[in-house]
Amino acid sequence: MMILGAILLLASSASAFPLGRSISNTLGGIITGKNKLTFNAAGNFKIVSFSDMHMGERPGDGSWAPWGPANDAATQVVHGTVLDNEKPNYVVFNGDMMTGENVFKANATNYLDMVYAPTVTRNIPFSSTHGNHDNANNINHQEEIEYEQAHYAHLSYTRSDVGPKPYGCGNYWVPVYAKSTDWVPAAILWFFDSRSFVSGTGNGPGPVPDAANYYWVDPNTVPNYIKLQRLLMTALWWQVPPALVFVHIPVQKAQILAPLPSPGDHDDEPDPSTQGFLNNTYTGLDLPFWDQIIALDGGKGNVLAITSGHDHGESWCARSKDSSGIPICFNGHSGYGGYVTEHSAVRNGRVFDMNLKDLSKKVPTVKTWNSYEDNTTDDAVELGPDYMAQYN
Ligand SMILES: *[C@@H]1O[C@H](CO)[C@@H](O)[C@H](O)[C@H]1NC(C)=O
Ligand SMILES: *[C@@H]1O[C@H](CO)[C@@H](O)[C@H](O)[C@H]1NC(C)=O
Ligand SMILES: *[C@@H]1O[C@H](CO)[C@@H](O)[C@H](O)[C@H]1NC(C)=O
């Protein structure tokens, strides 16, 4: 009764959020209509994250050329190869599904079908974050989310719990359980929406500020959402399970970590493009979000990693005092659409291999590597207190 009282108190104090649904469905353990995601018998739950598919590209003059469809087909081969090699339990599409500036309103969502197809034919559950190129004249984040929910309900865990609609609402979390009878999840996957040029001022849809370089997670709604969910988890479960965080555009701390010698591609440096820049000046507007990631970490290493796409030529993981010890990762480039850098020509997905033993350590750890279309893997590391310890 006391716990329930605490929850109702928390719920009534923040009516701006879809709490009824969060409590009854998500915190209660089951997302309506979905199977509970569980670790396998060996105690593993493996995720492949694909970024920057950039389907539907056309030449800048708006004409039609065969290289767009050819690239899209090649991207599907990349995904199929990585999925067959890794056999993951879950797939995360980490933004820039399509090059939204190039697609037609009549069939923009056909490109989502093409992005998801290799995963769907293999019957793998998945969810999405949305990138700056997923918002454009003929498509936006809300439309992508609603299409995914309507057409892939049997496999998709994507929601839109909070955030400005239609351009920045893909913020939600998904629990993964050690076994299906458990009440407390063994890990939580968190997904955030870093919006785009057309996202407006942060208070909702609006004009594009001339000075915006790239966008950032909405500072008005999302930090409160994370805080509230964290408090509810603590009230219900007496703990906040280890977290793996996905967001398309990296937080600005990624720029600070970029010069460190970490395994993976470093092609977009010295300054990989990140959240929070207006007129090439860092504003700190991504810090309200980042501060809640730090709170989620609790200074205990509870955030296993926060991983992004957006910078196709970056595919490393690093951590230091500057990131409060939290590992920041890049996914590399899984699509044949979008710009290509010297070392990102061989496309890849990033793998996170969670293991129950690793998660139950005093400070939890997670193994991660890049898996390539040429059937190779590289950059394998175990993220945790021993990783890059000399910088922490
Ligand atoms: C979308 O429509 C355009 C114009 O009719 C066509 O050229 C293109 O092939 C279509 N794309 C898909 C994925 O259906
Ligand atoms: C951007 O910075 C330049 C150079 O400092 C300045 O001239 C321009 O007015 C600024 N633009 C905006 C929209 O702030
Ligand atoms: C990767 O392995 C698959 C399955 O064995 C094979 O069909 C494909 O040709 C290989 N790709 C490369 C680039 O070696």
UniProtKB/TrEMBL annotation:
InterPro entries: Calcineurin-like_PHP, Metallo-depent_PP-like. Transmembrane segments: none annotated. Keywords: Signal. This is Metallo-dependent phosphatase-like protein. Residues 45-312 form the Calcineurin-like phosphoesterase domain. One of its GO terms (molecular function) is hydrolase activity, acting on ester bonds. It comes from Mycena venus. GO terms for cellular component: cytoplasm. Residues 1-16 form the signal peptide. PANTHER family: METALLOPHOSPHOESTERASE DOMAIN-CONTAINING PROTEIN, PHOSPHATASE DCR2-RELATED-RELATED. CDD domains: MPP_Dcr2 (cd07383). The keyword Signal applies. It comes from the Eukaryota.
